[in-house]
Amino acid sequence: MHKRFLWGGIAMVLVGAGLAFLAAEPFLAREVIVSGRSAALPAGIAPMAAAASFALLAGVLLLLFRAYLDSSQETIRGLAESASRAREDQEQRMREITQAHSDLVTHHRFTKMMLQCQRSQDVFETLLMGIRVGLGFHESVLGVLDGGGNIVFGRSRNGDGQGGVRIPCWDEGSLLARTVWSGRSLLLSTLEGERHCREDRSVLGKGPVFLAPVAKTIGRKCSEVKMCGFSGCPAFARENARCWIEGFSACVYHVSDLAEEKRKECVRCEMFGSSAVVVARSHPGSRKIRPETTQSIVALVQEAALALELVGMNENMRKMSITDGLTGLANHREFYQSLGRELERVRRYRHGLSLLMVDVDDFKGFNDRFGHLAGDAALKKIAKLLRGCVRANDIVARYGGEEFGVILPESTPAGALMFAERIKTEIGGSRFLETGDEDARLTVSIGIYSTDHGDLSEERMVRFADEAAYLAKDSGKNCVVVKAHA
Predict the structure, then answer these.
(1) For 468-480, how does the pLDDT look when each residue is reduced to its tens digit (9 = 90+)?
(2) Cα–Cα distance measured from residue 308 to residue 114, given in angstroms and rounded to the nearest whole number
(3) Which helix (H) or strand (E) holds 253?
(4) CB atoms within 10 A of CB 221
(5) Within 13 Å, how many C-alpha atoms sit on residue 118's CB side?
(6) I want to staple 472 with a disulfide (CB 3.0 to 4.6 A). Which of 265, 367, 433, 481 is the partner?
(7) Which helix or strand (DSSP H or E) is residue 19 part of?
(8) Looking at 411-456, which runs of residues are DSSP E strands?
(9) 3-state secondary structure of 187
(10) How does 138-166 read in b/e, with b if 16+ C-beta sit within 10 Å?
């Protein structure tokens, strides 16, 4: 366009110069009448007119040429700026693609690691490492819900975090507690204007922060988990019921009328969804916390929720494989494995080990008289009484039928005898069924065998304790017999 404009100006100059010469030619032979007399024009006026016309057109040409040069320079600068912007956009796009590829690789690697974990704690540690090391949010911390419903934060990687911070999940004044309660992620540029407590500020800091609750998927209905049988509850037939948010006040497990007590019961319920919360905090050396960058955290947190679900399923299967379905005690198989482990410890450390075989007296007559459902309830109660009597490291198992086994590590025959007498007294003094004025009671016969060397097999030790229990039955029942030697 500028070139056409320039050549058009040149053509105008040339045409103007030609016309100037043609216009000046007649004046060379023409005379001018002045005061009635004819006079010839000066000989040099015509060339002067042509030269003036040419100079004028040449000036126009120079102005046009200068305008062309200025416009060309502006065009060149515009093209250079456009090329620079395009290059910057391309570089920015390449950086985004590179970061997205890195996030995808991190997501794949740490998801695989989390799915291979066997414990919930391992899943949490892998998740935090993936967010810190893999995604670049170096100042992230993780709060995990404990058995009492408190959010517990550990110390950050470089040691400047607030270790041991505990926030009750039912505390409505805490921003962290409300976020965990809702189960939804939250991005904040500052804490100003947000209702929060002192513990929140110690964990979140002052800059931008991103909160992402780790919400587990229950995968079962509330009625299957709680076994309440209350079909009128809105959560009865719903999977993953978020009753703590949706306000299902009809839940029969909400025994308290106080709002705070109900929230405590919700947090401790198996159906409560959140199990932890990730806190990504801003730091000069960390990745920027923005809406587009936090999506990678959300994706990894979702994979952690799936890994926790698998861990829960594996844990339930493991418990089912070693637990008696009726009483909740260790089953026959786990009993023998535990006894084998304890005998190995006896051989290594030479400490005492005692085994009690607890046999319920006349249990068949109890079943025939009151029914098998009453018999099942009685076995459950006996199991509960046994659990209430033992120490933390003792092992209680249902050996089979109405017979129970109790393994007492690091115990003496005298200590085992005192413990057996306590069990006999607790069970003999308990009521197992009340129908009108009829009071059903049960007693037990207990056989004990102890060893200091562990130089026998599990089967022989069970046989010796079982022989003592049969001797207790033959001696009148409701008594304890200690087998002193094989």
Answers:
(1) 999 999 988 999 9
(2) 8
(3) none
(4) 16
(5) 2
(6) 481
(7) helix 2-24
(8) 433-435, 438-440, 444-451
(9) strand
(10) bbbbbbbbeeebbbbbbebeeeebeeebe
